[in-house]
Amino acid sequence: MKIDKRYTWGGPSKLFQSITAWQRWDSNAVRFPAILLMLLFASWAVVMPLDGGEQLVFGLGVYLLAIYLRRYTGSFITLVLISLSVVVSTRYLYWRATETLNTTTWLNALFSVGLLLSEMYAWLVLALGYFQTIWPLNRQSTPLPPNQNLWPTVDVLIPTYNEPLDVVKMTAMAAAQIDWPADKLKIYILDDGKRDEFRDFANKIGVNYITRDDNRNAKAGNLNNALKQISGEYVAIFDCDHIPTRSFLQVSMGGFLADPKLALVQTPHHFLSPDPFERNLGTFREVPNEGALFYGLVQDGNDLWNATFFCGSCAIIKRAPLDEVGGIATETVTEDAHTSLKLHRLGYNSAYLNIIQAAGLATETLSGHVKQRMRWARGMVQIFRTDCPLFGKGLTWAQRFCYSNAIFHFMYGFPRMFFLLSPLAYLFFGSYIINAPAGVIAVYALPHLALSFMANSRMQGRYRHSFWNEAYETSLAWYIMWPALFAMVNPKAGKFNVTAKGGRIEQEFFDWQIGRPYVVFFILLVCGFIIGFIRMFWFNAHEWDTALINICWTAYNLIMVSATIAVAMETRQIRKGWRVEREIPAAVVLPSGQVVDCRTRDYSEGGISLVLPSTVALKPQDNITLLLFRREVEYKFPAEVVGLHNTLLRVRFNNLTLEQERDLVAATLSRADAWLNWLKDREEVDHPLRGIKEILHYSWLGVTRLLSSAHKGV
Fold first, then answer.
1. How far is residue 314's CA from residue 569's CA, in Å, rounded to a whole number?
2. Using CB atoms within 10 A as the burial measure, which of 238, 331, 441, 644 is most buried?
């Protein structure tokens, strides 16, 4: 691996520039001894004995060094910050394991050992995460040969089970317009719901329809049933709500022709609607969503190690390798990741193109979101039990680490519960779960936390804001730990559940069923917080510092639990289709026949907002003709005026024909540039202080929502 020498340097940092630019680094005779020396120094830094004052100086010195270094850009500085974080965190863990365990009573032992194991888990995920994302590949699209006779045949598969036709038809119509030779492209709707209206719709738009007698193995079985009836050299798979752009194949297929061993190309899952966190907190396109880190950074990091995961949609798989592994995996409920694992075991390559080429619908409700994550957790643990990537043939060590980290990620339920409840062991029962003075705990723990936050903020700043990871995990921890545990005991337990899409929420309500555990945690933490002050000033005044640490820890947990409670308040969602903010060329034909050129502000399947160059004489219910343009192509749609405010015109479409619906998809959601710069100038790069401010705001929102719901008796 070569070091990136594109830096922005200044002042004393020229020394770093000289070191990294030294040509002798390419020599193994220089590189290996240097690495060995650094490892020896790091090991000494981890185990060297220091008293509390000396540890304070050490931790403060490393922190100030990191503060100084983070001012500079460049991959080398990022590597240094990661190294400092790993050393300080490992030193903390070594100290915890060798000097702080308390096993004097069964309660002390339970929480002391449980907390240490949770911290060891967190350290493992931290270290593997650094490894996984240390050098994102940022792969570019490979051009196709000009001669279209060399382009392969592709079958596009759209599996569906219980989704409404309004959701599926847009995906099917967009797929039918993908730019690819017509004689080399076939579209299939795979209907496990066996619905006549879907068969009729497929016939009307000229795509193929496949169903089967049973629903065995759910989505994987549906796809495998289709594979027996199709013959394309490649299969492109889209969830039925993921609308592809017309450029999908031209962007994604070139790599296959350049690399005969390439078996999988995955593109991001992009959502045009907000997930429950974004909708209920109002953070859509303002704060990176839960999936942004995986599709923005983790998959790019996986790609460096030839470990890109198949994610079930927005992907292309070469048919011959897929047949070689027996089709889509059916042994687990995460058939997608398991399929890519099987392909990698056989030595096939994978690729990740971080170019949005399709857009779908996020889960509408927190309960639906939780069920989806529960299935993912169960499935990843099933893979761990039945086809553990750490063992077996065919994988490189880097691939083993990447798959293992993906699996370990979904085991955070129990550790997160320990982090959440551990301070209560002292506050309620006086249990000392870390057998050390409060000041010593602080000088070991704070550098570990500060450096990990700093390094992650630098690496993940575009894709996850500080403290949001804790909020996401806290919201799901209680629910995913149970399927993960059951799958560890019995990997065959559980069944595939379909994630509902395309629904509405008619009235705002607090989801007590999902929120109940966190309301209980909230009450426990509030009680612990109050008891902490009582201990601090009355019961345990002689160890006020220990009480203070646990109070601060409890306050942090309260903030995260309160933010979770805020998400449990489901806000109204009554739109039939989500509006997409996008400027594209348009024109309006007024009743008088005058044509007014304009641009769209946003659009959906039901209507559109337009920005006019000046005011026009229109009133609600006036009928107009809307023109949309895609390069040289013009599309016409009948529309009715809904409202006009200054130069902002809102219209809805009137009884579009099927052909006009196809044209609307072509002019909007399936444009090649539909998602170009989607988040530009909207989501801000992370700054830890901003992250604290965001979480505090939504935490307070959670408290007010809980009190309001309790008062109303909802």
1. 31
2. 238
Residue 349's contacts (CB-CB under 8 Å, 6 or more residues apart) are 259, 261, 262, 263, 264, 306
Nearest Cα residue to 249 out of 175, 139, 188 = 175
Predicted confidence (pLDDT) per residue in 442-480, tens digit: 999 999 999 999 999 999 888 988 888 999 999 999 999
- Residue 376 is classified by DSSP as H
Six token digits for residue 555: 């306050």
**246 contacts 134 by C-beta, under 8 angstroms:** no
Q: Please report the pLDDT score of residue 301 as a whole number.
A: 95
- Dist CA 327 CA 264 (whole Å): 13
351, 387 in Cβ contact below 8 A?
A: no
* Contact yes or no for 536/399 (Cβ under 8 A): no
**pLDDT tens digits, residue range 84-108?**
999 999 999 999 999 999 998 898 9
Q: What whole-number distance in Å separates Cα of residue 372 and Cα of residue 364?
A: 11
DSSP, residue by residue, 550-584: HHHHHHHHHHHHHHHHHHTEEPPB--SS--EE---
Question: DSSP states of 646-672 as a string?
Answer: TTEEEEEE-S--HHHHHHHHHHTTT-T
Largest Cα–Cα distance in the chain? 89
- Walk me through the domains of the chain, giving residue ranges and CATH numbers: 49-134+412-503+509-569 (no CATH), 151-365 (3.90.550.10), 580-667 (2.40.10.220)
Q: Can you name the residues that pair with 633 across neighbouring β-strands? A: 630
Nearest CA to 617 out of 647, 597, 640, 587 is that of 647
Q: How many CB atoms lie within 10 A of CB 646?
A: 9
Structure token pair of residue 97:
């394991």
Q: Give the other-Cβ count within 10 Å of 345's Cβ.
A: 16
The residue with tokens 């640490």 is: 549
Residue 504 confidence (pLDDT) above 80: no
User: Which residue's structure tokens are 């699209």?
Assistant: 141
Q: Are 328 and 220 in contact (CB under 8 A)?
A: yes
Q: pLDDT (tens digit, 9 = 90+) per residue, 169-228?
A: 999 999 999 999 999 999 999 999 999 999 999 999 999 999 999 989 999 999 999 999
Q: Which two tokens stand for residue 567?
A: 């998400």
**Residue 498 main-chain phi, psi, to 5 deg:** -80, 135
Q: Residue 77 contacts by C-beta under 8 Å, 6 or more apart in sequence?
A: 7, 16, 69, 70
Catalytic hit among 155, 241, 336, 686: 336
CA 245 to chain centre: 21
Specify burial of residue 681 (Cβ count, 10 A radius: 0-12, 13-18, 19+). Answer: exposed
What's the number of CA atoms in the CB half-sphere (13 Å) around residue 272? 28
- The span from the first CA to the last CA of the chain, in angstroms, equals 58
Question: Any idea what DSSP says for residue 681?
Answer: T
651 in Cβ contact with 590 (< 8 Å): no
Contacts of 651-657 with CB under 8 Å at 24 or more apart are 651/607, 651/608, 651/609, 651/610, 651/624, 651/626, 652/606, 652/607, 653/605, 653/606, 653/607, 653/608, 653/626, 654/623
241 tagged catalytic: no
Helix (H, G, I), strand (E, B) or coil at 639: strand
What SS3 state is found at 680?
coil
- Reference 193, options 219, 170, 155; nearest CA is 219
Active site residue 336: yes
Classify 326 as helix, strand or coil: coil
d(CA 647, CA 650): 10
Q: pTM of this prediction?
A: 0.90
Q: Which residues of 200-224 are buried (b: 16+ CB within 10 A; e: fewer)?
A: ebbeebebbbbbbeeeebbbbbbbb
